[in-house]
Amino acid sequence: MYLSEPRDLYRGRAAAIIKPANAAEVANVLALCHAQGVAVVPQGGNTGLVGGQTPDESERQIVLSLQMLDRVREVDPDSNAMTLEAGVTLARAQDIAESVDRYFPLSLASEGSCSIGGNLATNAGGVHVLAYGAARDLVLGLEVALADGRLLSTLGKLRKDNTGYNLTQLFVGSEGTLGVITAATLKLFPRPRSRAVAFLGLDDPAQALALLNFVKEHAGPGLQAFEILPRLGLELVLRHIPGARDPLGAIHPWYALVEIAGFSDGEAERVASATLAQALDAGKARDATLAHSLNQAAALWRLRESMSEAQKREGGSIKHDISVPIDRIPEFIDEAGRRLAARFPQARPVPFGHMGDGNLHYNVSQPVGADKTAFLAQWDEMNAIVHGLVAEFDGSISAEHGIGRLKRDLLARVKNPVALDVMRALKQALDPKGVLNPGKLL
């Protein structure tokens, strides 16, 4: 449970699994490990996909599980803020916000298991980045246990504070290499009173881009999510996920899933209905269906959220969590497909994801009937093609999953050398003995 990650790409060993019950105990563990030179691997819900939470094979590291740090310290709807400990799951954080008639917008497929500490340590993205930003945009302050056992706190509900460096943001996305997040003050938002979810059939990614901009103009800030997926991806879901149904009567090469929120009863449905009708009339989509119940909306989202699981059941899948400028997504998908076809003619690209914020999960499924092990052995070569194209497009090799172990060597090749020097200097200053999550990120 604690020694491997969900894809089973990394499996390690540990001298011990330690489960502190509060921030003071976390600090005490770190102080002792710092003094003895023992490496510490922080772990939240163990849902990360790049091996950042997994110990190595040496059996000389300890896993520091934050699961027991699950207290709600404060919920303040008037200040639109809540302070939660790191082990609170994302789904529970959403429920806590809803209990005071507020909304916490971070949403991931793993939200029932992933934890707030891990979400912040990896700067999680999810489906609502288009409207609310990534995890770093949702945090007001942190409590962090430093490598030597000191507790640093920037917790608080202030929206403006210009007293020096922004230490809060220093630890967001640091993947446990600079300190261990033990609590966070998070932003809350007004709770939407209505939601509308639509599924649209498209000709190609270029039409998806035109539709995205059309919906932005007509729905304004009510646009919460805009996801794209190819026909192949939908077919894999229909084949492998029980209960999945094709929501449209005709087959289309591409699809978009759109969510619109409203802040009065029925507002989202009215806006979505008008927007879809105008989009079809303007040739921005070929077909569309609008969910008419919560169950129908959940079924549409399930088609998108089951993409990774369906690919897993289909066989080997080589993953890329990348981002490129939104306006170049159609060009990127076309060019990546051409380059992969030239080298791997039978492989099946399944690019899908958060078109609204430029983040694609450019996954490639194994050829039909191929040997899974032989296909996955081509991981590095396929990565080189996709990530090389990402660099040409001024994109990022890690949009929301982090670096961990999987992309550590790649980061050293693609990151600006000055930026790397600054990152190494920060690591040396905050963790001079190198005990915090060694072998990850840097």
Topology, please?
Layout: E1 16-18, H1 23-36, E2 39-43, E3 61-65, E4 72-76, E5 81-85, H2 90-99, E6 102-103, H3 116-121, H4 129-132, E7 139-145, E8 151-153, H5 167-171, E9 180-187, E10 189-190, E11 194-202, H6 205-219, E12 223-230, H7 231-240, E13 254-262, H8 267-281, E14 287-290, H9 294-305, H10 307-314, E15 317-318, E16 321-323, H11 329-343, E17 348-354, E18 359-365, H12 372-376, H13 379-392, H14 408-414, H15 417-430
Describe the structure in your own words.
It is a single chain. The chain is an alpha+beta fold. The chain is built from 15 helices and 18 strands. It has a five-stranded antiparallel β-sheet with strand order 4-5-9-7-8. The radius of gyration is 22 Å and the shape is globular. It starts with 15 loop residues before the first strand and ends in a 12-residue tail after the last helix.
